[in-house]
Amino acid sequence: MPAVAKLVPEQTVFFLCDVQTRFKNHIFGFDEVVLTINKMLKVAKVLEIPVVVTEQNPKALGNTTPDIDLTSLGPLHVATIDKGLFSMLTPEVKAILHDRVQIKSVVLFGIESQVCILQSALDLIEAGYDVHVIADGVSSCNQGEIPIALARIRQSGGYITTSESAVFQLQRDAGAPGFKLFSSIIKEEKDNTAKASQKLLQYRAVL
After folding, report:
1. What is the pLDDT of residues 139-162, one digit of tens each?
2. Which residues, 6+ apart, have CB-to-CB distance to 99 below 8 Å?
3. What is the spatial distance between Cα 32 and Cα 149, in angstroms, rounded to a whole number?
4. Which is the catalytic residue, given 83, 123, 130, 136?
5. 161: which strand partners?
6. CATH architecture of 9-200
7. Start and end of every Isochorismatase-like domain (predicted)?
């Protein structure tokens, strides 16, 4: 029987990969990726899901774009880690995961699909984690690379999903505490979700 790999808040961490200022004018749908990421971070706050952020060579490529609201996460923003590796699974990130033995699932979003997202996903899968890549939360400077990278991740055992599907799976129950706030976020983000979907999902039928 194939693995189901359901998302459970207490067993999940969000990985935000390299959404930095220097990429803004080069990444396809950069603004829409940011919209999706901010939605995911709002849900992380409601469901108390930790968030790990990386920045690829920030001295050259800048820091995480200020359009992404990390401040409101408070202690749920576990760390922002500088890296040279393309993969997010640096020694520092390995230590974070090692200290959180309950984590089984990594929800991954950011850039670029064919480089840092792909290599992060493969390393995490190899390390035994269920990896869920948010298809409307990843992109590349070359649009055509994106579906190929996502297909490669799926071939290796990763799960390709959308922001809407993932957050509802994490919330799970309309009767659970916090659903009212969760629901208000979904309504508030409705137009942004549609905008990101139209920009980033329309050509991914290959998946």
Report:
1. 999 999 999 999 999 999 999 999
2. none
3. 19
4. 83
5. 134
6. 3-Layer(aba) Sandwich (3.40)
7. 12-164
